[in-house]
Amino acid sequence: MPPFAPVLMESTRAIGYSLEAAIADLIDNSIAAKAGKVQLFFFPVDDAYVCILDDGFGMDDTQIDRAMQYGSMSPSEVRESSDLGRYGLGLKTASLSQCRVLTVISKQDNCIAGRQWNLDYVAKTGKWSLLILDEDELDSVPHISDLKKQDHGTLVVWQKLDRLMIGELDFEKSFGRKMDAVRSHLELVFHRYLTGEQGIKKLEIDFNGVKINAADPFLLKKSTQAMDTETLIVREKKILVKPYILPHISKLTDAEKEQLGGKEGIRKNQGFYVYRNKRLLIWGTWFRMMRQGDLSKLARIMVDIPNDLDDLWTLDIKKSHAIPPAEVRQNLQVVIDRIADKSKRTWTFRGKKETSDSVEHMWFRLKTPNQGVTYEINRDHPLVEQIVRAFPATKTKVETLLRYIEQNIPLNQLYVDLNNDEKIENDSGVKEADVKSTLEQLLSSMTSKIEKAEFLTQIEHTEPFCFFPEIIKQFMEENSK
Ligand SMILES: Nc1ncnc2c1ncn2[C@@H]1O[C@H](COP(=O)(O)OP(=O)(O)OP(=O)(O)O)[C@@H](O)[C@H]1O
Ligand SMILES: [Mg+2]
After folding, report:
1. Is there a smaller number of Cβ atoms within 10 Å at the N or the C end of the chain?
2. In angstroms, what is the span from residue 89 Cα to ligand 2's centroid?
3. pLDDT, tens digit, for every residue of 312-334?
4. Closest Cα to atom 28, ligand 1: which residue?
5. Is 87 in the pocket of ligand 1 (CB under 6 A)?
6. Is the shortest distance between the CB of 84 and ligand 1 below 6 Å?
7. Ligand 1 pocket residue status of 6, Cβ below 6 Å
8. pLDDT score for 190
């Protein structure tokens, strides 16, 4: 016996779609139809509606009939790699979770076909009574003229927005607020499509005529990739894992902080960012493999999964939930351990590496098994050496001074400031002009060209001079004249 239409349709309204997840589900369909532009129109007064118009390849009469069916395609069917669908349900369940009347009109090869599910009509007839719209009915649908202007595409219209009106005294106002949340959601989940990352077709999304921006949660232009990309192979399919460390909060502009979700958001949104076919699915979770602590708050790990491992990840109908399979979890745990350690270092002691690299640092971080960690000023730093060499008698005094500085770092206050994301001026870096004049002074005390050349070669790898290779090069050139 086929399912009883009115009951099934009413029940599936409660799958639990949020407004933003429902709209994102429709945009998934537009992307699968190779759309380059999706226009959202929403209108809160009188006969309020939400319209989603795309310029994808559209559907013909037969295809649109199939598309309106519950279970239009089997979940086990193999899909094109760009197809973001899985269950053959989204168009219906996402839409009717928000409204009582769903109209879909599509244009392909100069033919326009329109269908409508009206829950009240289905309840009245007690049957799967899909309405076929005639010319006049088509013409009364909002934004049909925009679809007609295009060569091909699909227009989805939601009317009788009962779910959006529930519990709202001022619908117009609350609708506006909800649409703001939708915009932020779309800017985030489709950010790779909005920027037109290599290998995917760029997508423009307009909100009542205004183009939305991409919200990159990794701040790729500024962040550091903490480790090389790891490729995990599961059932012969590739899963890519790219860990990033965000810049310290004091280095972010207000706009960047906002983009990352503000102070609280930065902490809350640490963790994995799982993309299914480059569309963000889940984010800000460690899948219970690690605690969301302060020390890992700058770590974000991009995980790219293909669309043919959905069963392994137990993807849900709303595409807002998935769990990594055991074999992936094991590998992710290794990445987590390494990244958490790195993020901790960025957080507690930014930028200055431990002693094992080739740079001559200003500070050392020494770790002893029993006594914990010591921060020491590098006695071999050329500036320290030069002072002692120029004034041998001051050697003990210099040593005492350095030791006192080391012993009197205002650690507690620093900890509090860092935790409060205070901008710490000491860390804004040495200025170019300052480096230049310091070098001039130092070089003026040397007499031979050889001595100067040796000194310049040495400081090429010495903090803070090594951050200004151009200046060193200039001095070297002058010296060799
Ligand atoms: N905007 C669109 N342009 C062209 N075809 C569409 C569009 N929206 C839906 N379709 C067609 O309708 C079908 C049903 O869409 P629906 O969202 O219900 O299921 P799905 O995308 O296949 O799977 P899922 O339930 O996972 O979203 C799609 O497979 C596609 O063939
Ligand atoms: Mg779909």
Report:
1. N
2. 6
3. 888 888 888 888 988 888 888 88
4. 67
5. yes
6. no
7. no
8. 98
**How many residues make up the chain in this entry?**
481
Could you tell me if 11 and 90 lie in one domain? Answer: yes
Domain membership flag for residue 11: yes
Residue 355 lies in a domain: no
From ligand 2's centre to the CA of 413, what distance in Å? 53
Ligand 1 proximity of 153 Cβ (cutoff 6 Å) = no
- Which of 49-58, 83-92, 257-266 shows the highest mean pLDDT? 49-58
Ligand nearest to the CA of 276: 1
Domain extent for 332? 224-348
For the ranges 64-73, 248-257, 328-337, the one whose mean pLDDT is highest: 64-73
Residues 416 and 374 in one domain: yes
Which of 449, 450, 471, 451 has the alpha carbon at shortest distance from 460?
A: 471
Entry pTM: 0.75
The answer on 248 and 203 residing in a single domain is no
Query: How far from chain centre, in Å, is Cα 406?
Result: 39
Distance 248 CA to ligand 2 centre (A): 39
Query: Residue 207 contacts by C-beta under 8 Å, 6 or more apart in sequence?
Result: 40, 179, 183
- Residue range 372-415, pLDDT digits in tens: 777 888 888 888 888 888 888 888 899 899 999 988 888 888 88
Q: With 0-12 CB in 10 A as exposed, 13-18 as middle and 19+ as buried, what is 96?
A: buried
Look up the CATH number of the domain holding residue 116: 3.30.565.10
Mutate to test the pocket of ligand 1, among 15, 29, 79, 130 (most ligand atoms within 8 A of CB): 29
The CB of 22 under 6 Å from ligand 1? The reply is no
Per-residue pLDDT tens digits for 93-144: 999 999 999 999 999 999 999 999 999 999 999 999 999 999 999 999 999 9
Q: Given 186, 211, 236, which residue is the final one in a domain?
A: 211
Respond yes or no on whether the N-terminal peptide bond of residue 217 is cis (omega within 30° of 0).
no
